[in-house]
Every structure is written in C-alpha cells, then in structure tokens.
C-alpha cells in the first residue's frame, strides 16, 4: 500500500490476526485489552505512515487519547479479526484515526462488527521526542466532513484539558495480607493492582511505552476487579475516553490500580489509574500517566448477562465517586438509546 501524498485522502490500513487461546479468558472470550492493543497498533501504523509523507524529521505517531469505545460483540478463540484504520481528520499537530474491528468465523464465513474506536495521535520527532511535528493535511470528501472533524477535534481538546486540570487522586495502598479481610462486595474487597517493569518489548522506537500495551494492562486489572466482585465470567463492555497525560519511558515501574466506582443492575464501572516511576531516578517520585473508566458485564455459561451484586459504599469519597459514576451511566444509557433511534 503506497502512502498518501500531502493533501490527498489517506489510504485505510487493514491488519488481520487469528485469535489464539492465549488471547482469551477461561471461557474463550478474547480479552478486551487485546482488542484495544490491536486497535492502537493499526492506528499507530496508519498515523506514522501518513506523517512521514513530507520532508523533515522522521517521526512516530504517539497516542494521546482514545474516545469512548463500545465492545459491540464478543470475539472468540479461532475467529479472525480484521482491524481497519483510517485517518478521518487532521489538525496542524494531531490526527484522528477511526478504527473498525470485524470478527470472522472462518468455518462459516459469518462476520460481525466487534468494535469501533476513534484515536488521537501527535507525531513526535525521532531526533527529539519532545518536538511535535506538523501533520500533512488530508483531502476531505466534503466541507461538511471537514467541519464535523473540526468539531470532534475541539471537543476532545477541551476534554483533555479538563481532565489534566483535575487534581490527581491517589489510590489507597493495597491491603496488608495480615489485616482482616475486607467485607465482600465493598470497594476495598475487589480493588486490585498490577506492577509492571517496562521492558524493550513494550516500547516504541522512542523507548516509550506503546499506548496499546498500557491499555492492555489497564483492561487486565479492571477485569480482575470485576471478577472479584461478581465471581463469574466477565467481559469488557465499553471504555470511556482514555487520556494519556504523560509518557512512560523504558525502565520505569508502572502501577496499574483499579477500583469499583459504580454498579448498576447489570454493569460495573471501574476506575483505572496508571502511575509510573523511574527506577534510576526514584527521587522524582510517581506521576499519573494514564486514567480511564472501564465498564464490565457479568455473563453466564451461555454468554447471557447476569445481575451484578450491589456495591456496598463506605464513606463520603466512595459515595461521591458512586454518584459521579451514576451520572456517567445515565448519560451513556441515554446516548445509546438516542443512537439506536437514529439507526447508528
């Protein structure tokens, strides 16, 4: 596939991969984190390819934000995923990539839409990672298409600034094994953390962590939280916007922590925070690198939704987070109903 020239419509990219047992949970459902990783890889490829169609420093497209992502159909072991990525908007220093994931049963030929996502990237120079390059403009099919893209750009830019301005709330320390066990179905009972040392295989050409690697770790932790709360098979239903606040460099230790914030009758919202610290520069302390809310559902052996145990809220902070989560839940429910009525 040839790269587009400046001012031309960017060619879409498609990658395919068969789902193997190590991609899935014990029930055979492919982990949402693996789907997110494939989505990000496709976005990075198409974004990097486009940004290197002009003269100047060679650069790599770095992920800065993933918009709310719905997992529309489960993907199973043995199915082939077709991940299609296309650049749909460019600004001076960023580009939007929309990705669609189709799952194919290669025994019957049946295909289903598994996932849709929108990702935002900025091109970073390979000579200086802090130097943001200009993005070659794409050609739009119409002025309306360009205007819609500009509106999406302004909306995500505003949300990123608002998220960055919020005070960093630190997670409580993991429970001491010698302490009495937490009461079942409380936030503390299911809260989970994962500690990961960033190695070369996790990183880009800049020696910074791939966004897809981070999202996969976040989904794993959120899945552990959901499974501990329900004690059933669970799957990722959706992910609210993921904001990448700061880069994570090779050799850092990342602590990925998840906790329940809200539970409805059939879904769980889990806040996941990623904090990073340098092993060789420990005096600099931890910093917040990524944050997001994941939504999981509980399934029976036939992959039908099960009721979720109610969350036992303790204290003012947990109640505040529960109330905020309920607002997000109702907003998302209203949007799904609105999209359904419009036939989207």
From TrEMBL:
EC number per UniProt: 3.1.2.2
Catalytic-site annotation from UniProt: 25, 219
InterPro entries noted in UniProt: Cytosol_ACT, HOTDOG_ACOT, HotDog_dom_sf, Thioestr_dom
Transcription regulation listed as a keyword: no
EC category name: hydrolase
CDD domains, A to Z: BFIT_BACH
UniProt-listed PANTHER family: ACYL COENZYME A THIOESTER HYDROLASE (PTHR11049), CYTOSOLIC ACYL COENZYME A THIOESTER HYDROLASE (PTHR11049:SF24)
Protein name: palmitoyl-CoA hydrolase
Organism (species): Maylandia zebra (zebra mbuna)
Species lineage: Eukaryota, Metazoa, Chordata, Craniata, Vertebrata
